């Protein structure tokens, strides 16, 4: 009786600890392994004597590699859980940042970003969500996912201005060293201590469900819409700092303005979640896509002013 009682009491504590740890590591992971890249583009372009398009190609490679290794990561998570994988991925991510701080050529940067892509697949949303799905029952799963994504939505708001300040004070190479050290100190112990090697529950074969979805026209329409929207947002997120600098804004200001996207994304998630009780999800999604497109059109027209850049 006592043993069962202890287990019941320990379960909520472990769950809260897991959510808190993943919220922190996802915020740090996205901030350091993804968003910070945009701040490093201008100084790297000057020091390495390469163009912006060539530099952003390195980040594109990281994203592609992350997608390519995702099935293998998912297979590992299903069989062994996330503790070892996410801890190792955190260490690999920190080492990749250290290696990035030492690159002297575009080829070296591409190699480092390839490794960074592997680390990202091991520690970012896809891995974290798999851990949450395995840990929580259906009744609590949605709240756990929402809690992690809301907190992690502030990643750009925290790390874009922070990285901009580090680059201005210490230079881009030392800034990378500082980010690597900070990420290792936060993510490695949290993943090791809070994430448990708990196997995912056995599910019914889902191949029939996937096959049915692939045969439906609405599925492919959704894929096309979200591919276009995600691609556009990725381009904006990566190039916004550089673009604002080109428009004449100081680097730290440009990074801070870009960081506002994180605050607004969190606000948007909360607002759209509330609106779903009144309006169809498709209508809300279409309205959000339209607003994002309008903002992209207005930026070249009003972005040279401080108010226009912020707005």
Order of helix and strand elements from N to C terminus: HHHHHHHHHHHHHH
CATH architectural category of the largest domain? Up-down Bundle
Spatial extent as radius of gyration: 21 Å
Distance between the termini: 60 Å
Runs in which pLDDT lies below 50 for 5 or more consecutive residues are 1-10
CATH class of the largest domain: Mainly Alpha
CATH superfamily of the largest domain: MFS general substrate transporter like domains
Shape: globular
Tally of individual domains = 2
Structure report:
- With 311 residues, this protein is mainly α.
- It has 14 helices and no strands.
- The chain has 2 domains: 1-199, Up-down Bundle (Growth Hormone, Chain: A); 207-311, no CATH class.
- α1 (2-35) runs antiparallel to α6, α1 (2-35) packs parallel to α7 and α8 (155-170) packs antiparallel against α12 (251-275).
- The longest helix has 34 residues, at 2-35.
- The radius of gyration is 21 Å and the shape is globular.
Briefly summarize what is shown.
It is built from 14 helices and no strands.
For the structure shown, list the relevant keywords.
disordered N terminus, 86% helix, Growth Hormone, Chain: A, mainly alpha, 2 domains, globular, single chain, 311 residues
């Amino acid at each position: 009786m006592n043993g069962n009682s202890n287990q019941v009491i320990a379960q909520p504590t472990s769950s809260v600890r897991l959510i808190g740890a993943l919220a922190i590591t996802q915020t740090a992971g996205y901030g350091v392994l993804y968003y910070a890249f945009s701040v490093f583009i201008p100084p790297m372009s000057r020091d390495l004597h390469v163009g912006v398009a060539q530099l952003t190609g390195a980040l594109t490679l990281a994203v592609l590699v992350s997608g390519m290794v995702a099935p293998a990561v998912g297979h590992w998570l299903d069989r062994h859980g996330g503790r070892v994988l996410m801890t190792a991925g955190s260490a690999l991510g920190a080492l990749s940042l250290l290696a990035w701080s030492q690159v002297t050529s575009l080829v070296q940067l591409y190699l480092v970003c390839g490794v960074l892509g592997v680390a990202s697949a091991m520690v970012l949303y896809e891995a974290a969500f798999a851990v949450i799905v395995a840990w929580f029952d259906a009744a609590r799963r949605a709240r756990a996912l929402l809690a992690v994504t809301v907190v992690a939505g502030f990643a750009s708001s925290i790390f874009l201005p922070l990285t901009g300040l580090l680059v201005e004070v210490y230079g881009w190479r030392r800034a990378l060293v500082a980010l690597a050290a900070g990420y290792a100190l936060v993510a490695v112990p949290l993943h090791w201590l809070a994430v448990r090697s708990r196997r995912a529950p056995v599910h019914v074969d889902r191949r029939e469900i996937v096959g049915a979805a692939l045969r439906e026209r609405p599925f492919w329409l959704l894929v096309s819409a979200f591919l276009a929207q995600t691609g556009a947002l990725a381009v904006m997120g990566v190039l916004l700092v550089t673009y604002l600098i080109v428009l004449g804004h100081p680097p730290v200001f440009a990074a801070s303005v870009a960081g506002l996207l994180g605050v607004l994304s969190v606000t948007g998630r909360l607002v759209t979640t509330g609106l779903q009780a009144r309006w169809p999800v498709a209508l809300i999604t279409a309205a959000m896509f339209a607003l994002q497109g309008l903002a992209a059109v207005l930026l070249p027209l009003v972005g040279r002013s401080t108010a226009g850049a912020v707005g």
